[in-house]
Structure prediction request, 250 residues.
Amino acid sequence: MARLAEPLATRIADHAIRVACRLAARGIDLRVEGLEHMPATGPAIIAARHFHHFYDGCALVAVVPRPLKIVITLDWMENAAGLRLMRGACQIVNWPVVVRPDSHAPDRGAMATRRKLLSATRECVDLLRRGQLVLVFPEGYPNIDPSFTPKTGDDAFLPFQPGFVRFAALAERDGITRVPIVPVGLEYQRGDRWRVKVRFGLPVMRLPEVDVRDQVCAIEEEVRRLSGLEHAPDAEERAMSDVATAGVLK
Prediction:
């Protein structure tokens, strides 16, 4: 029902994005595990590792059988016309847009950043209450990015920020909505072409009686495990958390 209530332009755009992502995914050796853990209906948040600026989203859109609404940032775009075009496209497909506080975007001031964060939060809550899937990369920065990333190697993993759990909490305030959070790992291997394993973990529910930070850390560790990175963050990675906003979802 939620899907049918969307504008025709949004449904057409979702279909076009899925086709494009499946075509792009042919450029990688893509494997999938645990897809049966994805809820077949109703709202959910996908909390995924962020490794590749392009292939992460393509892989997930290509394999998840339902439309994904991706929380993205456009602060890497320097061309004003291109930025306006991308913002318009995101509005059509209902992809919430945030600005990272440490970005170099011309409108990155504290007030502008806060307004965009509040707007993105409202959009995410609305999407969840309408039964949609919301994809969040809580690290905020990928390992492979043509513009900038604070990560220094393929195994670098930034601490998760708690916004995605708070999205669930806000959506559930209506007393009706229940939002499972699905941890997703992405394991990349270099070669003639990227080999990518996407692993879906068991959905978890937000627990009001448990501290948000503890829940975030538990999901972070599960995403790390699903990504084939079972070691704890080293000092360098933890230090990078001060400059990495991980989606500015605080």
User: Anything to note?
Assistant: Confidence is low (pLDDT under 50) at residues 234-250.
